[in-house]
Specification:
Number of helices: 5
Shape: globular
Helix content: 25-40%
Strand content: 25-35%
Radius of gyration: 16 Å
Order of helices and strands: EHEEHEEEEEEHEHEEH
Number of strands: 12
Distance between the termini: 27 Å
């Protein structure tokens, strides 16, 4: 992740200039360039595929967009999640959706997954707070390299998936490692282990 020390941008300016880019998000008006690695992309593709299978199997009115921004109202912040599951039925209430793939309400979001890279502080701290305030019911932090702080993933550090479930206005966190099966309130019948996700980052 690279932050540029240039003129601060408004969200509207950011959407106009960088809305079609997959490589940038905006945090407090500062342009942030995202630098995903190949394994990072393998993990997010694997997770997206597994969730799509579950969406189809249950015939849910959900979908995973290829490109989507989350605009936090009254701020100059726009996040670009690695994986976001949207509720199609809520999109009529989204004021920007018909013109831009931009979400402003947590009611439209069923689940967000972020694959941790060098910007792990944002995934474990900043986005936890902002996604909770937005009302995102479930947030996955996929730390396939085990690089997050020990206060988040324990000691010794190892690959960990943290599933944050919104209870009232705060997240309850549950950690999954090794062969542990993930527990999702959004997809209660999901059959997926931490190891399966971690192994998706490997080349055969």
């Amino acid at each position: 992740m690279v932050q540029f020390a240039s003129k601060l941008l408004t969200v509207d300016e950011f959407i106009t200039q960088y809305g079609d880019s997959d490589r940038h998000e905006l945090i407090d008006g500062e342009l942030v360039e995202m630098e995903p690695t190949g394994p990072h992309e393998q993990v997010l593709a694997f997770v997206g595929r597994k969730l799509n299978v579950e969406i189809d199997r249950q015939e849910l009115a959900y979908f995973i967009p290829h490109r989507c921004l989350i605009k936090l109202l009254s701020t100059n912040t726009a996040f670009r999640p690695d994986v976001i599951v949207l509720d199609q039925r809520q999109l009529t209430n989204e004021p920007l959706w018909q013109q831009e793939p931009v979400i402003t309400s947590g009611k439209s979001i069923k689940l967000i997954a972020e694959v941790v890279s060098t910007n792990w502080q944002n995934d474990y701290a900043r986005k936890v707070e902002d996604y909770a305030l937005l009302g995102v019911s479930e947030y996955w932090i996929i730390d396939y390299l085990g690089i997050g702080g020990r206060e988040y993933i324990g000691k010794p550090k190892q690959p960990t998936i943290t599933i944050c479930t919104l209870v009232e206005d705060e997240y309850h966190r549950q950690l999954f490692q090794n062969d542990e099966q993930l527990i999702s309130s959004v997809f209660p019948n999901l059959q997926l282990t931490s190891k399966q996700i971690f192994d998706s980052s490997l080349t055969s």
